[in-house]
Prior knowledge:
Strand 3 and strand 4 form a beta hairpin. The chain is built from six helices and 17 strands. By secondary structure, the chain is α+β, with helices and mostly antiparallel strands. It has a six-stranded antiparallel beta barrel with strand order 12-13-14-17-16-15. Strands 6-7-8-11-10-9 form a six-stranded antiparallel beta barrel.
Amino acid sequence: MRAGRDRAVVREWCSHMLLCACRMRHLAVLAAVVALAAAGPRERRQAAAGPEDYAPCKGGTGTCVPYYLCQDDTIVTDGAGIIDIRIGGPEQQECGNFLHICCNDPTRPVDPVDPTIPYKSVCGNRKTSGIDVRIQGFKGNETQFGEFPWMTAILKKEIVAEEEINLYLCGGSLIHPSIVLTAAHCISKHNPHALRVRLGEWDTQNEYEPYKHQDRDVQQVVIHPGFNPNNLHNDFALLYLQTPAELSKNVDVICLDSTPSVLANIQHCIVTGWGKDRFGKKGVFQNVLKKINLPFVEHAKCQHALRTTRLGAFFNLDQSFVCAGGEEGKDSCSGDGGSPMVCLDNNKQQYVQTGIVAWGIGCGTNNVPGVYADVTFGYDWIVAEADQLLLNQNVNEYWTYYDQIPAQ
């Protein structure tokens, strides 16, 4: 009986090695994998079926789709199990943590700047030329020291050989001296008390910088109640710091905005991070904070582009996402998860955070945008939770706009 039923199911194959979704069972999927593994070189090199190859199932209800788009007899429409989540892995950690690497001692330390000089905090104030001195000789995608003062590195504290080390998890952004905004997917599985935030970091292999970085332990983590770890819908999280950050030239906050119209006039945005320079094992984490300019992609156009990938023609891009990129070799990548995407508000000449690095299909593929959690979509939740964390203080005073950048 089993063998006969198995053969009957296998005959449900559609053309081009597609599965009849809603009719196939798990055994048929296994049979597909076995068949592909046993196929000769010609079959293995066959191009993947695109949406134009989808057709109704022969002799039954449903649609012919690639086997990986059929889960529990239903076509996958939200990317669960298919998307490439922007989170770093354990590889490439030469010293147990990418923030610590083997390096020769500097021969001429930089004299630190007096930290007691009064500082006026301004959200979204990018220091394009760096702080106090412009660093020469770097690649075009490397930032200046202190150029993006809201950028944070989220670390995990671990004890190795009776010594505490910091393992890099992902990026984040400072939105208040006591609150960091990041992606839920990068911290949801970790004990909040094992997390640490590094502020004002730039070159991870150089301890001699004009302004030192600040480390703050995390007291509490708040994750959006609608977060789905499979498809990353509502990928928002807040980290409440045990001790507030000391705002300075290299540590400051990013602007937030609740108005969707802010996105209307945006054409290009910037993503920063220490993540990998490419997808897969050949990618390496970065020492100096990197920046990448990306075109903003409208929601419907992004969904159309993603449907041409392995996500398939039935993929629906959730409203909690925005998109940017789609240019060859320019994208956020593994390890950049949680990092901010910021865009210049031309009316205010300040940067506003529009996205949080979430996921993509590979990295830097032409005509395939990267996907980001939409900060405008999550703004009301962010404000409500920040109010509770800070006992209803006027939290948004830190991330609201000025009419003009005040002189420093």
